[in-house]
Amino acid sequence: MSTRYTSWALGALLVLGSSSLPAQSSSADQPDNPEVVKLTLRGVKAFDPSELQQSIATDASHCKGLILTPFCWISKSPAIYQHNYLDRTELRRDVLRIRVFYWKRGYRETTVDTTVTPKAGGVAVTFRIAEGPPTLVRKIAVGPATPVLNAKDIRTSMVLKTGKPLNLLQLDTSLVNLSNKLWDRGYADAIVKTDTIVVDDSVHWADVSVLVEPRWRATIGEIRVAGNEQVSEQTIRNSLVMHPGELYRRAEVVESQRNLYESQLFRHAAIVVPPQGDSVKIIEVTVREAPLREARVSGGFNTVEFMQLEGRFRHYNFFGGARQLDLQGVIGNLFAPELNNTGIFKDVFSGTKENEAAFERPTWQASADIRQPWFQSARNTIGLGVFAHRRSQPPVYIDRGEGLSANFTRELSPRTPASAVYRFEFTRIEAGDLYFCVYYGVCDRATINAQRQARRLSPLAFTAQIDRTNEAFSPTKGMLGRVDFEHASSYTASDYRYTRADADLAIYHRLGGPRSVLALHGRAGIVRAIGSDALHPRKRFYAGGSQSVRGYGENQLGPRALTIPAEKMATIYGCNVMADTVARCDPNAVVIDPKTKLPTKNTLLARDFTPRPLGGTSAVEGSVEYRFPIWRELTGAAFVDAGIVGAAGLRDLANAHGAVTPGTGVRYRSPVGPIRVDVAFNPAVAEDLPVYTERTNAKGQLELVRLERKYHYAPATGLLDRLTFHFSIGEAF
What we know:
Among the domains are: 2-130, membrane protein fhac (Ubiquitin-like (UB roll)), CATH 3.10.20.310; 136-213, membrane protein fhac (Ubiquitin-like (UB roll)), CATH 3.10.20.310; 219-289, membrane protein fhac (Ubiquitin-like (UB roll), Roll); 302-431, no CATH class. The strands form 8 sheets. It has a 17-stranded antiparallel beta sheet that branches. A 4-stranded mixed beta sheet has the order 1-9-10-8, covered by helices on one side. 14% of the residues lie in helices and 43% in strands. It is mainly β and 733 residues long.
């Protein structure tokens, strides 16, 4: 049997008009509106049950948030618990809603039955769904043929595919894609519609015909602006990338509207064309202005910087012209001395024993930036800024700096900016004696202190980004990429001289349901000092941490050295820490019994040493993560991270420090982004690492000394020692 439809809506009306509404109840004496304590969807195979549940009205009572769950076990107060009650009229309509849900997606023979059964505190509602066979698309015809659209245009626009179910939502999307393709080429008045859908219910196949008529090309005749009060009309026109006399294209309309919204000047911005039949369009830009000033204070915590506070003030039309003024201040490491080594803040400052107090002091950043969008073109932005900061990378370095920056950004295409940035900064390295000893060859404390004087770090950088993701916080499809290149030398007025390149790419692919995602991430970078200059530690590469290789703590993957206090070295048999021969002491030798002063069979333990990241000059990282729904706003993740950091070029990475660490985690989708907890397994084996200790030289000054022999460092003694926990906000990538 074949059926011909000129509109799929006819089928939907037939389903809605069906009188077969099975609904059963196992108890005749139930109240009319008992509380729904449980909801079950049985037989759902073709779609994500959560997607189907969103299309119906009946819902079970539940806690209002995952964080409130422990309190909901104690109390069912309406303040924290959402009570939902059975509406029998809506229940019958839900049967129709489910059938329409399936019908629109190609399952035209789906049947639904309901059961309402008593349960402690209310009732349990069950929908039993028999999906039936899908109606598959046998053939898709798009015509008549036109030189405006080629075969590739049609293939990439059609979301509905042959051999797949007759999904009318995908057909609708395909029609929109074809219309947009024509509009982008100037054919704004093109006609694209479903011509016929022929269905044979006996064999469950369908033939689809789409009509395409490009008609004429449209141009812009006039642009009118309305609704502005404080913002000048010229400022609004500066945001538009379309002009009178040009072709009327969809991409330019979308980009112009995005520019208006991103300026933060307007609550509402609409670009519309009044109904008219000719090819010359009159464009109306209607806006509703937003407050021109904004101030906010926020706070948070993570396992790297303890507690943080942030304050920000923005003026979106500073002296007119959509010029933006941004004042920002951030303070971190709050309560670090009290919280360090408690709860989730375990070993945050591991490796900073000799200057732990410096790392525990507050970190801060302050900046003032002024930004002029639409400079000479709606796609250009220039900016100037001043800044100051005290930042730390435990246990590597503490960095203080102040300076100014200038930048120019060009929007190459939507969400594809390219920037040139010059940054002039005076920087001082407050901590990190080991850094000076290893990379400068300066190991005595007095000379190190002299090296800590302010030096200029002034790179010229070029950056390009591309964002093709569908969401800001938790993308489910698309890609996100970034490439950075920077150079610093005497030509840029920099005391540090180097060339650095870094590339980062993340790809997201939806698997099955809308919240099941396969995420891939890769990063590669290299930096080279010019001449014999040492690199600023901020410009070296580090790996390990919540957004890197999660089997390691922050910055702990890569070249490392061990430090050990002189008093510990003094316990080694035959080691005289007061003599010049301390460098010959063997850190693997036996130690002296403190009572008998005789050698024992014991040696120094791994915990007697402190691992110190040195950073590398090349790095490659990669991650594979599968994200899947668990319950409501709770999602899970299984991942494998890998990374390698070397002290030479990319060709020498085979001999560098690397690791592969698997793990798992959970995320809670909050309004400010995913709150993430990850635990990863570190399978790293023991390694031989260089050892540094302190001694007093002939001038009575403390200096670092590298031992001639390395120590066989094996810190993991059990399973728990190999697990690394991370708590943060935002996805890893």
